[in-house]
Amino acid sequence: MTQRPLAGSFRGLRRIAALTALALTVPLTATTAEAHSGGEIAPGNAVITWNIHAQTAIYDTAKQSPTTSTRSFAIVQGAVYDAVNAVAGRPYEPLVSAPRSRPGDSTAAAVAAAAHDTLLWLFPAQAESLNARYDEALAAIPDGRAEDGGVAVGRAAAAAMTESRRDDGFDPTAPWTVGTEPGEYRPTPPGYVNVGAWMPNLTPFVIPDAGAYPVKPPPALTSAAWARNLNEVKRLGAATSTVRTKDQTEAAIWWDDPQMVEWSITRQLADAHRLNNLQTARLLAMVFVASADTLIACYKAKAYWNFWRPVTAIPLAGTDGNAATDPDPDWTPLRVTAPSPEYPSGHACFTTAVMTALKSFFGRDHLTFAAYSPASGTTRHYDSLQAATAELLEARIWAGVHYRFASEHGHRLGLAVTPDVLNHAFQRR
Description:
Structural class: mainly alpha
InterPro entries: PAP2/HPO, PAP2/HPO_sf, V-haloperoxidase
GO molecular function: peroxidase activity
Strand content: under 5%
Pfam families: PAP2
Radius of gyration: 22 Å
Order of helices and strands: EHHHHHHHHHHHEEHH
Keywords: Oxidoreductase, Peroxidase, Signal
EC number: 1.11.1.-
């Protein structure tokens, strides 16, 4: 067996620790373009297994924010895609690299090496647990040339990916610009912290310029549009709202964590369609990389407009110069506001990217799924990706964390960036 450089004891597989458990019925088979080589069919899909390990490392252990974890997942899944694509004979354009491979190289070994090495680069403090999972993965593969070759491919893909991201602009200490004038962003309760301020300066994975997607200005504070948007979220998004329906409240809570979409729906769609390793690697890379590049463009717009969130705007509405808005110093939203500028909505950008990538891969919008959320304690059902996206855009208003114009323009930005990502990466050669 090929040994990794760092040893560790076996801790066992962690079960999926996602915030939702998803049950799917999808009457769709993989497209002809996807039905080529790439390894075993799920269950037993190494790409899904290591995506679960990545979730454990990124979210459960490191407890990265949704913004930060998007970069981490894109790094891991991008390397896994390049490794599996290389073993399969490079039927698709690589994302970062196309390592040399030989016929018979183990796909499972390549996946394990690529995911392990990128995760270890991201989280060196987790070496013991990551090495244990790596040991277990290689123990299930017969020793010999196939294993050695797969490991070499995976390590090469990981090395190329981590080198490409070594100076990519990631800086957790970067602060947001804070203003004091009406309309300017200021830190939000309860933590009053800065999160994701580095994202506008992050190097995109695919698109050449994340600033090439202009977002028009938010409404002027003296306009009727501003008053209409502020009063809508004030009325519907308050923690104590009496006009928000029970179903709207449930949806606002259900949609509160954007990772719900990426982890549960994407992974379970791959499982429901019994995608092989190459198909799964390509699907996950499309989703994670598209969402990362979309968020970079989204956060560039956030930093540029630096607009205040409802949780600070509503108590200070008396300063906006608009007679149609009234301040409420005791107003609080249903859900906690993310610590970043308001415009456009990051969740809308993110979810639109995920749903657009899923639609591109499967070739249709009508995918039926139902998901359970422990946060709301309920299951919600959808018959299309578009229906789910439309509800998300409303849910951010019902949660009290975004104005309607922020959600709408986040959605438009996702629709602009994601096709550019997918048109320039992951295409058949």
